[in-house]
Amino acid sequence: MEDRLKQLQAEALEKIEQAEDLKTLNDIRVAYLGKKGPITEVLRGMGKLSPEERPVIGQLANDVRAAIQVKLEEKQEKLSKLEVEQKLAAETVDVTLPGRPVRTGNHHPLTAVIEEIEDLFIGMGYTIAEGPEVEKDYYNFEALNLPKGHPARDMQDSFYITEEILLRTHTSPVQARTMEKHEGLGPVKIICPGKVYRRDNDDATHSHQFMQIEGLVVDENIRMSDLKGTLEVFAKKLFGEDRKIRLRPSFFPFTEPSVEVDVSCMCGGDGCSVCKHTGWIEILGAGMVHPNVLEMAGFDSKKYTGFAFGMGPERIAMLKYGIDDIRHFYTNDIRFLKQFNRA
Ligand code: 2U9
To answer: Whose CA is nearest to atom 18 of ligand 1?
Structure first.
């Protein structure tokens, strides 16, 4: 029995020595020290031994068990350490590798142009005013000198929600509402950007939904020359200091007199396809606020005068960036949008 125990010890220590992972080590523990293991078996058979042999074998069996236990613990520590080392080595991060490029977004070209125009006017002392897109017939038409049955309403044939409510056809109702809030007291100096809607068939130059930026200045002694000077500064800042503007007579129900405003073409007047060989490009409409409009909003038209102007930022962006189809702004083709990374 003594030999058997010594042999078991040698065998177990050898196996522990050769174990390469924690699982194998655990299997060895169960095999040698477990309830069904050979050492437990020896201890169970002690009853058959003589009283002299019993303490000797008992002591030996305990020594063998302790020796295996110690060796198991030593090896377990070694293997655990090794396992951590291997894991760390496998998970090493190479900090010298180049990073993955981060895809950055950019402003939509229309947003870029609108913000540029807003900034220009903020620099001239204007504030930004906004209003509802679902608007009352009163503010969209009546307050702007377009009574029911006025022929100019047809040009803006609209999306009506009820007889009296519609999707606004221009941002002019924002100016009418702002003036009303001023209760007849100037100055009013605002810029109104926003979405507008018209019943139109979409093509390269028309869209049933588009953006407008309109401006309004009302105060004492506001003259046509103030309008011209303001628009000249605007055109030069937006298109370049070498550009000129010209005013042509026109008609809008809410302004009198009214003008169309052209900016000189980048071809310098030599003639190109953008200006259709005229040397001039139309960029906006404007005029002196009609006395009826001032009075309806509560201003004394003998004391106060004002000018107003309106433009389509899509058209401005198309001219500025050479975009040939208004629908590009709304279809959000990433290949189109990515071209304006620095816009
Ligand atoms: C009030 C008084 C006057 C706004 C004006 C225009 C001329 C104009 C169009 C140009 C192309 C808009 O983008 S477009 O379709 N606008 O020509 N707009 S004067 O006049 C106003 C507005 C509000 C109370």
So the answer is: 310
What's the rounded mean pLDDT across residues 240-261?
97
Edge-to-edge strand ranges of the sheet holding 209-219: 127-128, 188-197, 209-219, 305-311, 280-289, 255-264, 245-252
CA–CA dist 15, 28 (Å, integer) = 7
Q: Tell me if residue 332 falls in helix, strand or coil.
A: coil
In the reported structure, the alpha carbon of residue 97 is separated from the centroid of ligand 1 by a whole-number distance in angstroms of 57
Q: Is 194's C-beta closer than 6 angstroms to any atom of ligand 1? A: no
Ligand 1 site, residue 146, Cβ cutoff 6 A:
no
DSSP-derived secondary structure letter, 126: -
Question: pTM for the whole thing?
Answer: 0.73
Provide the pLDDT confidence category of residue 342 given band limits of 50, 70 and 90.
Answer: low
Alpha-carbon gap, residue 11 to 32, rounded angstroms: 10
Residue 286 CA to ligand 1 centre (angstroms): 6
Q: Looking at the CA of residue 285, tell me the nearest atom of ligand 1.
A: 17
CA distance 260 to 266: 19
Ligand 1 geometric centre to CA of 249 (Å): 14
| pLDDT for residue 153 is more than 90 | no
> Looking at the DSSP assignment, which residues form a beta bridge with residue 258?
250, 287
CA dihedral of residues 194, 103, 320, 239 (deg, nearest 10): 90
Q: What is the pLDDT of residue 205?
A: 87
Locate the ligand 1 atom nearest the alpha carbon of residue 213 and give its number: 13
Query: For residue range 13-69, what is the model confidence (pLDDT) as tens digits?
Result: 888 888 888 888 888 888 888 888 888 887 777 788 888 888 888 888 888 888 889
Compute the mean pLDDT over every residue in the chain, rounded to the nearest whole number.
Answer: 91
Asked if 304 and 220 touch (Cβ cutoff 8 Å), the reply is: yes
* Of the listed ranges 23-32, 218-227, 301-310, the one predicted with least confidence: 23-32
Beta strand 209-219 with 188-197 is: antiparallel
Atom of ligand 1 nearest to the CA of 179: 24
Q: Write down the pLDDT at residue 337.
A: 93
